[in-house]
Amino acid sequence: xxxxxxxxxxxxxxxxxxxxxxxxxxxxxxxxxxxxxxxxxxxxxxxxxxxxxxxxxxxxxxxxxxxxxxxxxxxxxxxxxxxxxxxxxxxxxxxxxxxxxxxxxxxxxxxxxxxxxxxxxxxxxxxxxxxxxxxxxxxxxxxxxxxxxxxxxxxxxxxxxxxxxxxxxxxxxxxxxxxxxxxxxxxxxxxxxxxxxxxxxxxxxxxxxxxxxxxxxxxxxxxxxxxxxxxxxxxxxxxxxxxxxxxxxxxxxxxxxxxxxxxxxxxxxxxxxxxxxxxxxxxxxxxxxxxxxxxxxxxxxxxxxxxxxxxxxxxxxxxxxxxxxxxxxxxxxxxxxxxxxxxxxxxxxxxxxxxxxxxxxxxxxxxxxxxxxxxxxxxxxxxxxxxxxxxxxxxxxxxxxxxxxxxxxxxxxxxxxxxxxxxxxxxxxxxxxx
Length: 434
Description:
Strands 1, 2, 3, 4, 10, 11 and 19 form a seven-stranded mixed sheet that branches. A five-stranded mixed sheet has the order 14-13-12-17-18, with helices on one face. A three-stranded antiparallel sheet has the order 6-5-7, sandwiched between helices. The chain is α+β, with helices and mostly antiparallel strands and about 425 residues long. The longest helix has 17 residues, at about 90-105. It folds into three domains: about 1-155, ATPase, nucleotide binding domain (Nucleotidyltransferase, domain 5), CATH 3.30.420.40; about 160-205 and about 285-345, 2-Layer Sandwich (Nucleotidyltransferase, domain 5), CATH 3.30.420; about 210-285. The chain has helices at about 50-60, 70, 90-105, 135-145, 155-165, 210-225, 235-250, 275-285, 290-300, 320-330, 340-355; strands at about 1-10, 15-20, 25, 35, 40-45, 45-50, 65, 80, 85, 125, 150-155, 175-180, 185-190, 200-205, 255-260, 270-275, 310-315, 335, 360. Helix 5 crosses helix 11 (about 340-355) and helix 6 crosses helix 7 (about 235-250).
C-alpha cells in the first residue's frame, strides 16, 4: 500500500492529512478533528498531545507545556520521559510521532511499532505563514535526527498559484500580492509572477481580518468578560482565536448575533451581540490607511505599478465582499481564494508527492530456498580389459561345476589389433575329492 502524510504547522496548532493508494486525500482525524493544538503533557511514561494537555496547561499543571515556539528559545528547558531527560524542542517530535502511530494503527491497520517505518515513512511539512525560516529548519532537523529520511516540505503558494492560473483567476505574467491572516496578524507577500520566488514581505499586527470580523470578535470577548467576571482573559489572544468563528457568524447574521464561543482554553461561553451596535462601531473604524500604506510601500520598493499587480485574498478572515470592495476602491485587481481552490491545491500537492510514496508490504514467511541445480556431467568412459576365453568345464566325480554367466563383450571389428592382457589371473583353487 502506498501512502503519504502531510502535517500543516502553525505556531498555535498542527493539522494532518493523508493519502493512501489511489484514494483521494483526506483529513487524518483523531476525536473528530484533524487539527491539534500545540500543547503537551508529560508525566513519567505518560505523554499527551492536544486538547487534554491544553486543559492541564490552563490549570497551571507544571507537567504541561504550551507556547511551544517560545519555550524552545530557552536551551535549559527540558522534560523527562521514560526516565530520560530531553530538551523541550523534542516535545513536537514526540507529539507528531504519536499521531503517525495512530495513522499506522487505524488507517493502515498495522500492529508494528513506528520505529520500523521511520526510515521510509513519507512525511511532508506544510509550514504556515507565521513559521520563520529558523523554526522550519528546527522542525526538519528534529525528524532527520530521529531517522526520518523520506522527509520534505511542500510549497503551498506555488501550487495555489498554479491552480489559479489554470482556472484563469490569475495571469501568469502579472505580479501577485498575497494577503493572509493568522491570529489577527496580516501578512503581505509579494511575488514577481506566478512561478517566481517571493521578492518582498511585510506584516501588520491587529489587521488580520475584515474590520467587521475583528470588531465582532472584540464585542464577543467583552460580553463574555462581563458575564464571567471571574475569568482571567488576554483580550488580544481571545480575539485572534475567535476570528475564524466570527467569519462564519457574519455569513448568516441577523439582527441579533448569538451562540457559544470557544475561547483558547477550550471552554465555550454563551454570548449575545446586537448587529446595530456592530454597525455603529464600524463607522468609527479608521485603520484602512494602515493597510493601504503597507501595500503602496511594498509595491514601490519593488518598482511595480498598481495595474501590474493582482491582490489575492488568501484566508477566509480576509476573503469577504466587504474587505475586497474597500480594496477595489484603490487597486485595480483584487481576487479571492475560495474553499474549492484550497481543495484543488491540496489535491495537486498530494499528486506531486505520490511518486515518493512508501509501499508497505504485509509480512510474509521467508521463501523456501530451492536446492541448487547440479549441472549435468559428461559420461565417464571406462576401459574394460580384454578377458581370455572361458575355460572348459571340468568334471570330477560326476559333480557338475556351476556355470558362470559372463556378459558378452562387444564384437571386435576385423583389423583391430589385440593387446595382451597385462593382468595375470590367479590360479583356481584345487578341488577336493570326496
